[in-house]
Amino acid sequence: MYRKNRLLQQDKKHLWHPFTQMHEWEQDEPLVIESGKGCFLKDLKGRKYIDGVSSLWVNVHGHRKRELDRAIIRQLGKVAHTTLLGLSSIPSIELAGELVRIAPPGLTRVFYSDDGSTAVEVALKLAFQFWHNRGGTYRRKRKFIRFKNAYHGDTLGAVSVGGIDLFHDLYHPLLFDTIEGPSFYCYRCEFGKEAASCDRDCLAGLQSVTRSYRDEIAAMIIEPLVQGAGGMIVAPSGHLAAMERLCRENNILLIADEVAVGFGRTGKMFACENERVSPDILVLSKGITGGYLPLAATLTTEKVYRAFCAPYRMKKTFFHGHSYTGNALACAVSLANLTLFRKERILEKLLPKIKIVTRLLKIFRDLPHVGDVRQCGFMAGIELVRRKKNKVPYPYSWRMGHRICMRARRYGLILRPLGDVIVIMPPLSIPERHLRRMIGLIYRCIREETE
Q: What's phi and psi for 416, nearest 5 deg?
């Protein structure tokens, strides 16, 4: 008991939690996780919870997966970390080869960093310098197309190409200028139209932007199929492929940020595969290590890579890197993660679970305060509204999504909302019986809290 109380006191005294209003945090008792196994987490009191958010969308095979634990231990017996600046390492080389092998066609080069935000920074700088290195009129291509409701991380470059007002508006004076493309948030269409018309008008608006500014645009950055942090906003079928076509027609690089949607979340290894899209730059993180260690990778094409290869005196080097770039432990566990995808046929086994989610989500549509239910593969969002008929949201101060997630904890389920969107995103390995229990508990909590 003394240790528990000491930890709770130290948390409130010293820790500053991300995306958390600390004034309110200090009033409540923190939930401190002590251990985990499979799809469950255990707190200091010994209470078990289903990890309904995959520890913020990173966990793939469950906690304390034997093969992943052993991969780290084996690597620790050799070396924990060595720099990639002027050196190389076995795990980083082997992982780069594996990532290229499974990535969409045309991606041949891998640049490591530490997390999703830093991988996006790499992508933005690569795209900018690619055109700069080519010289001439190409140096005018310095702008980026971003999208409303987009989220690409919290470093300033990533925030510059984000589009969530609540997160990003405050920092506007610090950001570089971008061109905003229309959102495909069809439930709350900015054109006030139904889904099919919304998609048409979004693409028409985007076509106009790309044609008008094609000589100034370095790249378009997208979250393929699903805008995650924006509220699990699912793109209409064919939207992704249409965006790629616009980039090809207008000589614009396509950056696919698959930090959230990669590694099986949409039912394919990468979301781009669903519409046979091959981006110029692919951004990966979260599930890359199975949820074990921080690591990210930015993949690009030989064409982009070759624009940086020149005599040193020409100053075309990509002057970018991190202290822990290509960390040996993280690369070793990533290799084990990819081995598990093959060995345990993760994607194949995921298909029946996706169908279960699809079937069980249907009952949510009849709840009086559920405005929209969105799903793409093993990712889903349930949008809560105060009045269903005219889509009136709950007042911000009510924190309805948060209240439902706090209620879920009483029943042994950890969730984290996106505003008033309840997110369903458990580890890919969650057994079907626990998946059904999880969705049933979400239904119960929504009914109890909104009635």
A: -140, 120
What's the pLDDT tens digit per position in 289-332?
999 999 999 999 999 999 999 999 999 999 999 999 999 999 99
Pairing of strands 421-424, 379-384: antiparallel
Residues 74-113 as b/e (b if ≥16 CB within 10 A, e otherwise) read: ebeeeeebeebeeeebebbeebbebbeeebbeebebbbbb
Asked if residues 439 and 361 have their Cβ atoms less than 8 Å apart, the reply is yes
Q: Please, which pLDDT band fits residue 429 given cuts at 50, 70 and 90?
A: very high
**Cβ proximity of 16 and 22 under 8 Å:** yes
CA distance 136 to 129: 13
372: helix, strand or coil? strand
Report the helix count and the strand count for the chain, using DSSP H and E: 15, 16
For 379-410, the pLDDT digits (tens) are 999 999 999 999 999 999 999 999 999 999 99
Which residues make Cβ contacts (< 8 Å) with residue 385, sequence separation at least 6? 369, 370, 371, 391, 392, 393, 394, 420
- Give the pLDDT of residue 380: 98
Q: 410 by DSSP, 3-state: which?
A: helix
Cross-strand partners of 147: 181
Query: Would you tell me how many other CB atoms lie within 10 Å of the CB of residue 57?
Result: 25
Longest CA pairwise span in the chain (Å): 69
**CB neighbours of residue 171 within 10 Å:** 13
- In tens, the pLDDT along 37-46 reads 999 999 999 9
Phi-psi region of 105 (alpha: psi -120 to 50; beta: other; left: phi over 0): beta
Residue 175: strand, helix, or coil? coil
* Long-range contacts from 167-176, C-beta under 8 angstroms, 24+ separation: 167/229
Contact 122, 113 (CB under 8 A): yes
State how far the Cα of 151 lies from the Cα of 153, in Å rounded to an integer.
6
pTM: 0.97
Say whether 120 sits in a helix, a strand or coil.
helix
Find out whether 266 and 306 touch, Cβ atoms under 8 Å.
no
Contact between 272 and 104 under an 8 Å Cβ cutoff? The reply is yes
End-to-end Cα distance, the chain = 38
At 192, is the pLDDT very low, low, confident or very high (cuts 50, 70, 90)?
Answer: low
- In what helix (H) or strand (E) does residue 338 lie, and over which residues does it extend? helix 328-343
Domains of the chain: 12-64+345-450 (3.90.1150.10), 70-343 (3.40.640.10)
